[in-house]
């Protein structure tokens, strides 16, 4: 949920500037701004008044001169009145939620508070939104009493992933005759993050290394000897039977034994973003399917306790400020991953060499979404496989002649990949189910995912 609030950034105190000394440059500038806010009706009245005055002078008609002066005076009086208005208006925006999947609506609530001691006139409220989110919302607010408030709302949705700015909120002031309109912008802005949709995946059994697969909550006991115990400071709620008295005497504060250490399963999701590896564009393109697949697999494994990170062919990793640390709460990791996938685009890199360099070895489970591969990239993918304990590859199909494509897939299988060819219209859940128990790798034991 995001909340943006503020007062207009182009007019002090949220409204047209008040009067003052005629020599004040700020007042003169404000008056020029007010004159520039004359509407078509106001300018027409001024032009008609000037024409009537000129005709009265030429024809010697004093009555026509009075009519011309009245026509010209009305918009000028409206400018002066609106310019000297001193009411203050505060505006805020509430975005809920601030992160939504594609084709899902988010609700935006706008609130206007009159914090002055005098009522406002007619207000027109407008929020700036990108075209992809829909038409620009506009609202007409009736007179707001002193200390009163008005609330309106609208909905936004997008078929495309991305981060979209909302704001600034604009407030348009007008006089009762429609002669003058002044626009004031609030400084607050918010950002709507449209993430790829995810698909629930079935729980399957994937063999994995004993050092990190299966139940991520598997624990290893510390050595029994007192000299090998790793103590830590006592925390509220710790069992007093775990107090390590030798360390307590050494450090001068209560210490407890750290009897068990969690060993968390690790997974790297590799997303191939090479432009040459994918065909088509738009929400239903194969690349968008791969992005959705990467998001679905990442969330699926996070829910089962895996430490998951995202790697692209460019070598960029997420989450983690230092290139992909697998620490932190799973919900925070999920948010970081989805934020990255919301803005991921095609890369111009021709190959997967940077991804190979980024993998240090012993990566645990590796799940890759690969585009079309030539002979060189297939060999690189085979080398990438050696950096992980077990690996599953979703490979885009239909980009090459069938015999060449089958040869590429056979080479990946021989290198140890569990290969799942992806055809147009394939369901990720069905492909994921096909990987049940088929991940290659030596010295593996089963684990339910």
TrEMBL record:
It holds the Pfam family DUF58. Residues 15-25 have a biased composition (Gly residues). Residues 232-319 form the DUF58 domain. It comes from the Bacteria. Residues 1-28 are annotated as: Disordered. InterPro entries: DUF58. Signal peptide: none annotated. PANTHER family: SLR1927 PROTEIN (PTHR34351:SF1), SLR1927 PROTEIN-RELATED (PTHR34351). This is DUF58 domain-containing protein. It comes from Streptomyces durbertensis.
């Amino acid at each position: 949920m995001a909340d943006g609030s503020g007062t207009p950034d182009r007019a002090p105190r949220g409204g047209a500037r008040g009067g003052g000394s005629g020599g004040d440059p700020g007042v003169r500038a404000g008056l020029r701004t007010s004159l520039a806010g004359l509407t078509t009706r106001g300018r027409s009245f001024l032009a008609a008044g000037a024409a009537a005055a000129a005709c009265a002078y030429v024809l010697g008609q004093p009555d026509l001169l009075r009519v011309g002066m009245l026509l010209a005076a009305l918009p000028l009086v409206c400018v002066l009145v609106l310019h000297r208005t001193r009411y203050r208006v505060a505006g805020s925006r509430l975005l809920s939620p601030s992160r939504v999947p594609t084709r899902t609506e988010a609700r935006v609530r706008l609130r206007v508070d009159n914090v002055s001691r005098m009522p406002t006139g007619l207000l027109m409220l407008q929020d700036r939104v990108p075209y992809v989110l829909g038409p620009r919302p506009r609202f007409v607010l009736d007179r707001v009493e002193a200390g009163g408030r008005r609330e309106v709302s609208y909905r936004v949705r997008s078929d495309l992933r991305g981060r979209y700015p909302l704001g600034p909120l604009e407030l348009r002031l007008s006089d009762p005759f429609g002669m003058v309109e002044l626009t004031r912008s609030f400084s607050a802005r918010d950002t709507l993050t449209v993430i790829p949709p995810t698909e629930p995946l079935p729980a399957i059994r994937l063999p994995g290394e004993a050092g990190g697969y299966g139940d991520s909550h598997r624990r290893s006991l510390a050595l029994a000897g007192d000299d090998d115990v790793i103590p830590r400071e006592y925390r509220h709620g710790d069992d007093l039977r775990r107090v390590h008295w030798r360390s307590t005497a050494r450090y001068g504060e209560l210490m407890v034994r750290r009897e068990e250490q969690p060993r968390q399963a690790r997974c790297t999701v590799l997303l191939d973003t090479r432009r040459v590896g994918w065909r088509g564009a738009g929400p239903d393109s194969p690349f968008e399917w791969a992005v959705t697949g990467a998001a679905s697999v990442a969330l699926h494994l996070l829910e089962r306790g895996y430490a998951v990170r995202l790697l692209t062919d460019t070598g960029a990793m997420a989450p983690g400020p230092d290139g992909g640390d697998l620490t932190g709460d799973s919900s925070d990791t999920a948010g970081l991953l989805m934020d990255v996938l919301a803005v991921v685009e095609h890369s111009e890199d021709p190959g997967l060499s940077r991804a190979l360099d980024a993998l240090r070895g012993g990566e645990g489970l590796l799940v890759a979404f690969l585009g079309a591969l030539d002979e060189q990239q297939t060999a690189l993918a085979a080398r990438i496989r050696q950096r992980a304990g077990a690996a599953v590859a979703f490979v885009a199909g239909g980009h090459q002649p069938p015999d060449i494509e089958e040869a590429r897939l056979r080479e990946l299988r021989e290198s140890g990949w569990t290969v799942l060819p992806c055809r147009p219209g394939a369901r990720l859940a069905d492909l994921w189910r096909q990987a049940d128990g088929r991940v290659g790798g030596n010295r593996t034991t089963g684990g339910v995912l």
